[in-house]
Amino acid sequence: MSKHILIVDDDALLRRSLAFNLEQNGFHTRTAASAEDALALARQDIPDLVLLDIGLPGMDGLDALRRFQDHLGVPVIFLTARRRELDEVLGLELGADDYITKPFNLDVLLAHIKAVLRRSGSAASVANEPVPLTIGDLSIDQAAHTVMVAGRSIDLPPKEFDLLYTLALEAGHVVSAGDLLARVWGAEFRGEPQVVYVYMRWLREKVEEDPQHPRRIITMRGVGYKLVAQGS
Fold first, then answer.
1. What is the residue-wise DSSP string for 36-62?
2. Which CATH class is domain 4-127?
3. What is the fold of 133-227?
């Protein structure tokens, strides 16, 4: 099974280039333009390794590193344009597994990635296997990729499953279409909310008793979507 790498950088061209090249080298990738989106993605689908830029908008890479350590324990390689020695010392002392400065050679980066993955092994992935979620009479097991609604097994394609799981992680809270795009489809889909609308319609056809009058996945007009518990 290919290793899952989460790429976190606000440079869209770099994200696309890195994702393409890593996929060509046998890795599975997801991308995020901010630390906040990256942490949400990682909670949804724990990566084997994170490539993390330090200079991010909002929460910076050093703060994000603490969150990845505290909540997920996944290895992190810093990607940064900062050349100050202090950044390297800080990053490694805080627990980053490696550090590489932009611009970098792809072969060098691949060597760093493989070395960190060898050191980390599979222990972190096993220890942090997602716990099944229960919201009312809805149960979602991410590891087994199964969904139960009122005692019935529901078969969902991958993207619809990810969409439901993302809403379940924020059950009772509104998630905007933009956040759903970033967390389920990746940073490159920002600005294409119609993707969410289409998949949301398909998802409701499977989990709602009356898809035209949904009670589980509620639309908060002009704000986003909220998963609400039904039954018990």
1. HHHHHHHHHS--SEEEEESS-SSS-HH
2. alpha beta
3. Arc Repressor Mutant, subunit A (1.10.10)
